[in-house]
Design a protein that fits this description.
The complex is a heterotrimer of chains A (507), B (316) and C (359). Chain A is 33% helix and 27% strand. Chain A has 18 helices and 24 strands. The relative contact order of chain A is 0.10. The mean pLDDT of chain A is 90. Helices cover 71% and strands 1% of the residues of chain B. Chain B contains 13 helices and two strands. Chain B has helices at residues 2-31, 39-57, 65-91, 96-119, 144-148, 154-172, 174-184, 186-191, 196-223, 233-243, 248-267, 272-275, 279-297, and strands at 124-125, 225-226. A two-stranded antiparallel sheet of chain B has the order 1-2. In chain C, helix 1 (2-24) crosses helix 2 (29-41). Residues 345-359 of chain C have low confidence and may be disordered. Chains in contact: A-B, A-C, B-C. The B-C interface holds B 37, 84, 87-88, 92-95, 97-99, 101-106, 108-110, 112-114, 116-117, 122, 232, 235, 238-239, 242, 278-280, 283-284, 287-288, 290-291, 294-295, 298, 316 and C 21, 25, 73, 75, 120, 124, 128-131, 133-135, 137-142, 144-146, 148-150, 271, 274-275, 278, 311, 313-314, 316-317, 319-321, 323-324, 326-331, 359.
Chain lengths: 507, 316, 359
């Protein structure tokens, strides 16, 4: 069997850290090869090296058994390497065709030959069963469709080696199925695929071989068929991982949050949340399951006051809070771990101390008659940072920007829990974190529940929802599809509902 | 009413042209992703360069050739000045608004400094500029002929040609597609193998060339003298760019509007029908309308999404 | 510390560029700068004039810096100065109260005029998300034409159409004891108000909850909103305060340094305020010193021009070049880093910890 790609003993350093340390990865022709590792293990860096975005300090890259220097993405393209980035590289107000031809435009004289390109795209689309409309605008098509446009970009350039960076993160279970089918199609047409992921199930489902890296080091390459999920996980994390979260059965009390047929517009000014109703009680964790962009952000933002409500009611401990200002909501007991910790959760250029009082800076003892009290803030911050094991260069006076993602997240969670909110809304609390931090954060969320508080958990990771929640509400297209007890459901059922299939309706 | 329109039309066009070409320059810069509030300064540098060139050549040469040479020099000097902005905002990720402000201040100060050193007074006078002419045959067409084809400048036709070429480049060519992609989402352009830095340099340099031309045209058509300022026309060009929603034809409409509004304000005292309106109202009218337009467009702005954001090719 | 070094390097580079310009026109830079600094600092009267020249710059620098702290770029300081100055002049010319009351009223008028002029773009930004840069530029020209017609219409001077009447000696910020102390200089009370403004602004920014909010909004308005701060109110408030400071700059310029208003001019001090703020790293104390420096440059060029015929626009040019270097301070930072690396070995690199290979 011949190799199309050989990356031998690759080393890549960034100021202060070694992202890739002596990693070897080989790709056989016609195989799907998984690259597995935790967040921050160095997967994207390794693929960046292959795609010409970074130059390795050491190591050799061979393509079709010939040694090459890949100095930029253009060189990679010429070598037949294409990449679907995790964050799509598509110009929103361009058409599908314009996006695909960008950088290798067909011309008629000096004019762009859009018609010719569109025709070729239609043909390719038919050939690989991608079903892409060449004249649609990117901003008008679904995320799944956008991903296919990215795939088309590679096919249009006749790439032989296709790299997929975390391709399933943004897809519905259905779309994931479709994607896997497309991948197998591509293999049948003679392409070779590298898929970057940290999801073990997908590797088992689609990959032939799997290379595991951990903290920048290559751990090994295994045949997927001969390996179990558990041993893959152990290779990835470096110790035995217990994916089961320890928790007692819940003892729900009074209703803390009650939402009555709530509707709100999304950023595109159309209804993103429609007639949504739900209850969260004391001492329970309610998980919101759904694919990204199906109304979760709108739900969270209307509860926290960041988004205007069109109709419906929000009650907290029986008191209506539908239209009151954000600050009053915080004061009446809503804590919020935001989805985007850098955009919302922290003022990155403030010190940790200032960030820890971001919501209470104007309260006694942190302020008196409008004057800030530095000493009180310092003590308060110190307590949180110690309690939640937030590690930083200079303690409380560190600038938030200098912390690692995990420590930033722990700081936010510490801040919100210190307020001891009756309702804690945790949105994607573990996104992008390593397994150690994930376990820690899960433990804290359950502790909060066990103190008799209500927790609303929003996550795109179905596993996380299933492990932590007592009840699960499934959203699709801004609507509540149904609510199930976590102990009485399974992944299949929830997955189907995420795609919009309601079991009651089907019976 | 008709006679008023007929009277002011040629003046309005004369006033529109420098505004149009400068706004078009701004269009190339902003659609490549670089905000350029230095248009005023670039115009001033072009005005200075053309005045100086023509002033220097007018004793030695005859005919309109020197005027075109003056415009060429204006464009070149505009490009040189714009390189300062390009370097700051593209290579150094500087705040583009501050860098543009610096360009304005440098151009204003430096040109007067040099002019004063050369002429003693700070002003540079030219003895003859472009002369208006009636287009043969076309000017005989009733109504349209009077409006569009009488008392026109050669530069007007030249700039309209530039406008058409610009619209063609932007919408039909490879370069146009790439330029727009850099202004909307440079990461996508980079992933497609496009040299974002290069494209942005070209965008900014085009803005320098066209703004320089704009400044030169002011001197060589209606001003006749460099005085160290273009009276805020660069800022008005910036407003036209927004008003025209970053599209060539939109800009044409916006600059015509400003051209007419300013001309009306300038001539209002000699036209009885307009003299009843307080001049202050006419003078502030374009700016107030711009503010209102900004409010109206705020919901559906077509501004290039990445304009003003520094792009670091090494970062993902 | 590092900011100070960067500012100092910018100044040195600006002065070098100025020197090259003098060489270019055939003058001697050493002579030029000698006369320039003599012109600004040679005797007590000239020092007084230099301080007076710096006074409006302190205000405009503070105005720009204050808005910057909230993430707003107030490029409309010139217009706000005009309106503030116009309001104060109007009060000074129209009323005949006792001096302390009149001065107080004039200052209030200046604050209100400048604040109002900045309130409009602030409101448009908060309510409609209209970019404040374009809005304030438009406001500048509206102010320009407003003054252009109001001054000749209502406050026409005795001799010139293009000037307002002169304020009576007792109705300006000038005061005999200061004038005497500085031997006839036009230094005036504006300087004291400027120093007070520096202290108040520093206090607001560093010590109060208002400052905490404004800075949070400036760094990250999304996070500020999340934390329950009223982002829009803060934006308007910040513009209002910035405009009030600019208006005070107008009061200092038109009723202190001068005693009448001219039409057809947007005061350059408004744009210089951007340079002052940048050079002062947006800190009130930094602004104070940067304004003093620019005061020296401006006030010295007249003497320099008289002695060796270097055009006085040299000062503007140097200032413009300094702002360019301050704007491109990344370059200076990089050079500093290189310099440090070559001096100390690589083992004590304190690079940022947060930069990771994986996004």
């Amino acid at each position: 069997m011949s190799y199309v790609v050989e990356m031998l003993n690759i080393r890549k350093e960034f100021p202060g850290i070694v992202a890739n340390d002596n990693i070897t990865l080989t790709l056989k022709k016609g195989e799907i090869h998984a690259l597995l590792g935790e967040n921050g293990a160095g997967k994207s860096t390794l693929m960046g090296v292959l795609f010409g975005m970074y130059q390795p300090e050491q190591g050799i890259i061979k393509i079709r058994e010939k040694e090459v220097k890949i100095t930029n993405p253009n060189v990679a393209n010429h070598l037949g390497i294409g990449m679907v980035h995790q964050h799509f590289k598509l110009v929103e107000n361009f058409t599908v065709t314009e996006n695909i031809i960008l950088g290798s435009e067909p011309l008629k004289g000096i004019v762009l030959d859009i018609d010719k390109a569109a025709k070729r795209i239609s043909e390719l689309s038919k050939h690989y069963g991608l079903n892409v409309d060449p004249h649609a605008k990117i901003e008008d098509i679904s995320v799944g469709m956008q991903q296919r446009v990215e795939i088309m970009k590679m096919l249009y350039r006749e790439a032989e080696v296709l790299i997929f960076d975390e391709p399933t993160a943004v897809l519905t279970p259905n779309e994931i199925e479709e994607l896997m089918k497309i991948m197998r199609n591509l293999i049948n047409e003679g392409k070779s695929i590298i898929i970057i992921t940290h999801k073990l199930k997908e590797i088992k489902a689609v990959a032939d071989r799997c290379t595991v890296i951990r903290r920048g080091k290559g751990i090994g390459t295994v045949n997927v068929k001969e390996t179990s999920e558990a041993s893959l996980a152990e290779m990835m994390v470096g110790r035995h991982v217990n994916f089961k979260v320890d928790k007692k059965a819940s003892t729900p009390g009074d209703v803390v949050l009650q939402i009555d047929s709530l509707s709100a517009k999304n950023n595109r000014k159309v209804m993103g949340l429609k007639n949504f109703s739900i209850e969260v009680r004391k001492g329970e964790i309610v998980g919101i399951a759904g694919v990204e962009g199906n109304g979760q952000s709108e739900l969270v933002e209307t509860i926290t006051g960041l988004r205007k409500v069109e109709s419906g009611k929000i009650l907290l401990n029986g008191k209506e809070v539908t239209h009151i200002p954000i600050r009053e909501r915080i004061e009446s007991g809503i804590g919020h771990i935001p989805e985007d910790r850098q955009k919302r959760g922290l003022v990155l250029d403030y010190t940790l101390e200032n960030n820890m009082v971001l919501e209470v800076y104007n309260k006694k003892p942190f302020a008196n008659y409008g004057l800030m009290n530095g000493a009180a803030i310092k003590n308060y911050a110190k307590k949180i940072l110690e309690n939640f094991d937030v590690r930083s260069g200079e303690g409380g006076v560190s600038i938030a920007r200098t912390l690692s993602g995990g420590n930033q997240q722990k700081a936010i969670i510490g801040r919100e829990m210190e307020l001891d909110p009756d309702l804690l809304i945790a949105v994607q609390p573990t996104r992008g974190l390593d397994v150690g931090s994930i376990e820690y954060i899960h433990k804290r969320l359950i502790e909060h529940r066990d103190k008799g508080k209500a927790v609303l958990l929003v996550s795109l990771e179905l596993d996380e929802i299933l492990q932590l929640s007592d009840r699960i509400a499934i959203v699709n297209n801004g609507e509540l599809i149904g609510t199930v007890n976590a102990s009485e459901t399974n992944e299949n059922e929830v997955g189907l509902m995420m795609a919009g299939v309601n079991k009651e309706r089907n019976i | 009413m008709w006679t008023i329109i007929e009277q002011i039309f040629p003046y309005a066009i004369i006033f529109t042209i420098p505004l149009l070409i400068t706004a078009l320059g701004g269009l190339f810069s902003e659609r490549s992703g670089i905000v350029n509030i230095g248009l005023e300064g670039l115009m001033i540098s072009g005005a200075f360069a053309s005045a100086l060139t023509v002033n220097f050549l007018q004793d030695k040469m005859q005919g309109s050739t020197i005027l075109w040479i003056g415009l060429l020099v204006a464009a070149v000097v505009g490009i040189l000045f714009s390189l300062l902005h390009a370097f700051a905002s593209i290579n150094l990720s500087a705040d583009q608004v501050i860098s543009g402000t610096a360009i304005n201040m440098i151009a204003m100060a430096l040109t007067v400094f040099l002019a004063r050193n050369i002429t003693g007074s700070g002003n540079i006078r030219i003895t003859s500029g472009f002369t208006p002419f009636d287009v043969p045959i076309l000017s005989k067409i009733p109504i349209i002929g009077d409006l569009l084809f009488t008392k026109t400048y050669a530069t007007t036709w030249f700039i309209l040609l530039v406008l058409i070429i610009s619209a063609f480049i932007l919408n039909k060519t490879k370069f146009g597609l790439r330029l727009k992609s850099c202004g909307e989402f440079p990461q996508a352009a980079q992933a497609a193998g496009i040299n974002v830095v290069g494209i942005r340099y070209i965008g900014v340099m085009l803005s320098g060339a066209l703004s320089g031309l704009g400044g030169g045209i002011i001197i060589l058509t209606y001003a006749g003298e460099f005085t160290g300022s273009v009276s805020g026309l660069g800022f008005l060009a910036l407003a036209s760019l927004i008003f025209g929603q970053w599209r060539p034809l939109g800009i044409l409409g916006a600059t015509l509007f400003f051209g007419f509004a300013s001309t009306i304000a300038n001539v209002s005292q000699v036209i009885p029908e307009l003299a009843v309106i307080p001049p202050i109202i006419l003078k502030i009218f374009p700016y107030v309308v711009t503010l209102i337009a900004l409010v109206i467009f705020s919901k559906s702005s077509q501004a290039p999404k990445a304009a003003g954001e520094p792009f670091d090719p090494g970062k993902r | 510390m590092r900011n100070t070094i960067v500012s100092l390097i910018s100044i040195v580079l600006g002065l070098i560029a100025g020197g090259l310009l003098m060489l270019f026109i055939g003058a001697s830079p050493i002579e030029g700068y000698t006369y320039l600094f003599q012109g600004a600092l040679k005797n007590i009267a000239r020092i007084g004039d230099t301080l007076a020249t710096a006074t409006p710059l302190i205000f405009t620098g503070l105005a720009v810096a204050f808005a910057f702290r909230t993430g707003l770029f107030n490029i409309g300081v010139s217009g706000q100065m005009l309106i503030g100055g116009l309001a104060a002049t109007a009060v000074g010319l129209s009323f005949d109260f006792s001096r302390p009351i009149l001065i107080l009223l004039m200052i209030l008028a200046g604050i209100i005029g400048g604040g109002l002029w900045a309130f409009i773009p602030g409101f448009l930004k908060a309510r409609f998300n209209v970019h404040e840069v374009v809005a304030t530029i438009m406001m500048n020209w509206i102010a320009y034409w407003t003054v252009y017609y109001i001054v000749p219409g209502y406050f026409k001077g005795e001799f010139l159409e293009t000037e307002s009447r002169k304020l009576a000696e007792g109705n300006t910020l000038r005061t005999p004891w200061l004038t005497e102390m500085f031997q006839g200089s036009y230094i005036n009370l504006g300087l004291f108000f400027a120093v007070i403004a520096v202290i108040i602004v520093a206090f607001i920014i560093n010590k109060t909850t208002l400052g905490f909010e404004l800075k949070a909004v400036g760094f990250n308005r999304h996070a500020a909103e999340y934390a329950g701060m009223k982002v829009n109110r803060n934006i308007i408030l910040s513009m209002l305060i910035s405009g009030a400071l600019a208006g005070l700059g107008g009061v200092a310029l038109y009723t202190g340094n001068a005693s009448s208003m001219q039409i057809g001019i947007l005061p350059s001090q408004g744009y210089d305020g951007i340079a002052v703020a940048l050079l002062g790293a947006n800190s009130p104390v930094g602004v104070f010193f940067a304004a003093l420096l620019f005061g020296i440059l401006y006030s010295g060029t007249g003497f320099m021009n008289a002695m060796i015929e270097i055009p006085p626009e040299l000062a503007n040019t140097i200032i413009a070049i300094i702002i360019y270097f301050a704007a491109t301070s990344v370059l200076i930072h990089r050079l500093l880093n290189k310099f440090r690396k070559t001096r100390s070995n690589a083992n004590d690199v304190n690079g940022p910890v947060g930069k990771k290979g994986e996004a």
